[in-house]
Amino acid sequence: MVGVGLLYQAGYFKQSLSQDGWQQETYPVLDPDEMPLTLLREQDGTPARISLPLPNSRSLSAQIWRADVGRVPLLLLDSNIPENDEHARNVTDRLYGGGSDHRLQQELLLGMGGIRALRAYSRITGAPAPEVFHCNEGHAGFLGIERIQELMNPQDGSEPMTWNEALTAVRSATVFTTHTPVPAGIDRFDRAQVEYFFNAGLTPAVPTSHILELGAESYEGGDPSKFNMAVMGLRLAQRANGVAKLHGVVSRGMFQGLWSGFDTEEVPITSVTNGVHTPSWIDPAMRAIAVDPQENDQDPASRWRKIYQADDKDLWQVRRDLRERLVHDVRRRLRASWKKRGAADAELAWTDSVLDPDVLTIGFARRVPTYKRLTLMLRDPERLKKLLLDPDNPIQLVVAGKSHPADEMGKRMIQDLVRFTDDPEVRHRIVFLPNYDIAMARVLFPGCDVWLNNPLRPLEACGTSGMKAAMNGGLNLSVLDGWWDEMYDGQNGWAIPTADNKASTDERDDVEAAALYELIENHVAPRFYGESTDDPEITSEEIPHQWLAMVKHTLATLGPNVSARRMLTDYVQKLYVPASVSGRRSLADNGKVARSTSRWIERVRQAWPQVHVNMWTPRVCCKNRRSVTS
Fold first, then answer.
1. Mapping DSSP to helix (H, G, I), strand (E, B) and coil, where does residue 431 land?
2. pLDDT for 620
3. Contact 114, 122 (CB under 8 A)
4. Is the pTM of this model over 0.70?
């Protein structure tokens, strides 16, 4: 496996808060020479380059950095080189940066430039050329166009293919994964904009009109003036999937127009549920008590059943230690955040007593688009205060997340939450931590007892934050959306009921917020603090055996199912191996199968309008009741 991406000069932004709680963004420049990267070089030592022609006799060139992620090389294209003009150098300036022209050039570089980078990598290192191409969302969709260009204008002396032959061959070995359940999440460009760039000579052998047809929204409700990257990705791939079972259902409905006449359930989009990399996300203390270090290739899930052998007292101590570490990390980060907002040290003594290592801790951390409903917990502020300050069963909340720089509504949600957390009455029990990143997450996930997720169903494609909590013994409290819809079993957490789809937005939020409060008050908190047995060796608390039974069940059952190992196995078995087999077959013997298949497809398409279906019904003869065909 080889990964391909872009090396952003600034990456995503760093987040801080203004005095009134408004998100502020900064973009620190990254220095590749100070990162674990190696520049790909030619045999003579010069940096390897790929280049794409641009309109007005310009060009977009990039050097190729290599990062080794475990045993997987990751190639990162970097346009910030002297050969480019200023605009071209800034193509890889930041994630989600610039306007549509800027975004289109990023995706041309990622897709077409990515294939050229792979060819350079194989040529220089001797690594085998990839056989299967996995397009992760529409962003990399132009990789299929570059591969068609290679087959129509081969440089190895082989017989050129026609457009239809090359398209057939490319589709056979391409996998496309869609990640969004909403049309607004898909990249779309003006058709004329895409035409303008391809007419500059990006693919001399490929007619631009054919490329435009691939991305055309030529279905009911589509916009003929738009070029849709996901539509192109699906038309260029013989195999496609969503990222959870429910997302597969949503995707089949969302893209049904591409398969006119198919029932929704017959649309050829399957699903592979996402997973997370266990070694990166499970805390070492939890790994030691929950996971058998001995690998069992026949039954990988057996490693997680070690948790059933753990003594409740030991497991409870591990969970408390992780919670206590989170409390100390929160106090440090919160103090730093307040100082950036203008507070003096003399005003911040209260941060030394924020949170309590013996209080039920609920976490919520993710991106902050409106559909994830960061502020659903604030629907009834007084009810939330009551839960936070309950004298017998209190809760505490740790919240983090970044809103897209252009998302004013998301920023407003963060500000509303921050203003609530600033209230001296509750600020010791609820905090918002700015600049959510991996370092914060590695303490946050293990330290939370419950992971909260309340998106608008079914707008979350998968979500993985709850997976990271689960593999550390956290119980999920979530709307049945994304991965939770298929993995919730009644014993590994709680499902937040959803309102009828006919309800208005306000009615839906009211109903689901009330259900959330009720679950926390009457089920989650009592289970955490309730039925327990005193243990003389743990002086300040009791051991909640029923809670720990849920924790053990979560680790044993969800641990193996939310792992990237399971996800990768699914991709290999369901998509990669079949794509490899069909790809090899289509290109064998100078593409004999691809050529014959494309001719068959063309013959059927031309003849199809002449096909008619006659309906025959039986007519019964009255005299002898014989059936006569009519």
1. strand
2. 63
3. no
4. yes
